[in-house]
Amino acid sequence: MTDREKLKAIILELSYEKRLVTLASGRQSDFYFDGKQTTLHSEGGLLTGKLFYEAIKDVPGVQAVGGITLGADPIATATSIAACLDGNPLHAFIIRKEPKGHGTGQWLEGRKNLPAGTKVVIVEDVVTTGGSSMKAVNRAKEEGLDVLGIVSLVDREEGGRENIEAEGYWLKAIFTKSQLVGA
């Protein structure tokens, strides 16, 4: 079984649920992908890191990966480790949902590894409309980073890709909803 096939099996076992939920976008859905169940699983996290790294290792100039806490945290860390093990260090960073309430009041963790102009890829567990991804892009840009594109564990195929591309960024999805559970 390939790494991709193993990760798909873990996602279907741990992250996919057929039930009524309200998504971050505010929309109702009859299915849910809880990506953190996969990315926080020991083998799921390892495979996620490997496949995200494979998705970006040939992106010219990429120097770091990160996104909005909490979904991006294990992905960024696993991807950074996979890259380092391959001899291509990529730093990880975390974007807070609101600025730190004490100390420096910063929005971004891992800042000392990211000088202005650092070329980054935003990582996500699930993309629906692309709204969260674009929040991460905009915050990273405000922090002086050069955002190249976005990689997601799952693209729900509900307009996120189109919205992201309309903003001038690319989206690579490790899996689409169709690849995981059909149309």
UniProtKB/TrEMBL annotation:
Residues 74-162 form the Phosphoribosyltransferase domain. Keywords: Glycosyltransferase, Magnesium, Pyrimidine biosynthesis, Transferase. One of its GO terms (molecular function) is magnesium ion binding. GO terms for biological process: 'de novo' UMP biosynthetic process; pyrimidine nucleobase biosynthetic process. It catalyses: orotidine 5'-phosphate + diphosphate = orotate + 5-phospho-alpha-D-ribose 1-diphosphate. Its cofactor is Mg(2+). It holds the Pfam family Pribosyltran. InterPro entries: OPRT, Or_phspho_trans_dom, PRTase-like, PRTase_dom. Orotate binds at residues 128, 156. Its EC number is 2.4.2.10. 5-phospho-alpha-D-ribose 1-diphosphate binds at residues 96-97, 100, 102, 124-132. Coiled coil: none annotated. CDD domains: PRTases_typeI (cd06223). Transmembrane segments: none annotated. Pathway: Pyrimidine metabolism; UMP biosynthesis via de novo pathway; UMP from orotate: step 1/2. Belongs to the purine/pyrimidine phosphoribosyltransferase family. PyrE subfamily. PANTHER family: OROTATE PHOSPHORIBOSYLTRANSFERASE (PTHR19278), URIDINE 5'-MONOPHOSPHATE SYNTHASE (PTHR19278:SF9). Homodimer. Catalyzes the transfer of a ribosyl phosphate group from 5-phosphoribose 1-diphosphate to orotate, leading to the formation of orotidine monophosphate (OMP). This is Orotate phosphoribosyltransferase.
